[in-house]
């Protein structure tokens, strides 16, 4: 079993981007600028945004966090999005999800200028991804593809089961893995809560990508000997032994699954850091396109 080390890979990517930023600075150019909009006070979202901003600082990007109260109106948020779309100092921005229930996430996503949509959530960017055109690929699927790339894992002809069909992870992941690209060229099955014979299906996967948000859902009997297992899950569970009072648990029962795998990711040093690195790559791309 080999661990797919997202922490090390993401460090490599950050160093590559930091070098680019250094050369921009050396030639007197401005540096990329990412803005993050955080609505409300959800602990996990606050944490994610803080980490994204810290990454920016580490590699020399400019960054701005825009905090808005949980009871802000949809219109006020849409006005903020419009302001960011028009702000020439901002190369790209994200609106951290989930949003409070009274705000229509789709409306907000649709309002973001696709040229600044470094999350890759807008229909224009999703459509471009489907067609294999230049785009911003959403951060988690892009980070997973980058792991395959950097570990030189051949996914061609493999049976890839994607567990979960979210707009952010499962759906784009299934498209990327099925495209005529390397990595890609896999035969993909997308599975979800209504899938029948889920255990058997998962156990037939050469590559199992799990993004369903149910802690330790994938057990050893659901994994084929020699499979590649990618765990996207990251659920906070209370843990009084930790200073933070919680720990993050994945969707895969890592301890019992790991020895069956050829490669596996670990929560939180696998997909999470790669997601954050992808956001930096997309922000650099948004800057370069301008
Ligand atoms: N919530 C969970 N993952 C993400 C992400 O990648 N981007 C945004 N904007 N919100 C998220």
Describe the structure.
By secondary structure, the protein is an alpha/beta fold. The protein folds into two domains: 86 residues, 3-Layer(aba) Sandwich (Rossmann fold), CATH 3.40.50; 135 residues, NAD(P)-binding Rossmann-like Domain (Rossmann fold). It is 40% helix and 18% strand. β9 and β10 form a beta hairpin. α6 crosses α10. The longest helix is centred in the first third of the chain and has 21 residues. The termini are far apart. The mean pLDDT is 97. The structure holds guanine.
Distance between the termini: 43 Å
- Content-based structural category: alpha/beta
* Tally of contiguous helical segments: 10
Secondary-structure element order, N to C:
EHEHEHEHHHEHEHEEEEHEH
- What is the average of the pLDDT values? 97
Strand content: 15-25%
User: How does the overall form come out from the CA principal axes?
Assistant: globular
Number of strands: 11
Low-confidence stretches: none
Helix content percent band: 40-55%
CATH topology title of the largest domain: Rossmann fold
Q: In this structure, how is the largest beta sheet organized?
A: 6 strands, parallel
CATH evolutionary superfamily of the largest domain: NAD(P)-binding Rossmann-like Domain
Strand order in the largest sheet: 1-11-8-7-5-6
- What would you call the quaternary organization? single chain
CATH class of the largest domain: Alpha Beta
Roughly how many Å is the radius of gyration?
19 Å
**Ions and ligands:** guanine
User: Architecture of the largest domain in CATH?
Assistant: 3-Layer(aba) Sandwich
Number of domains: 2
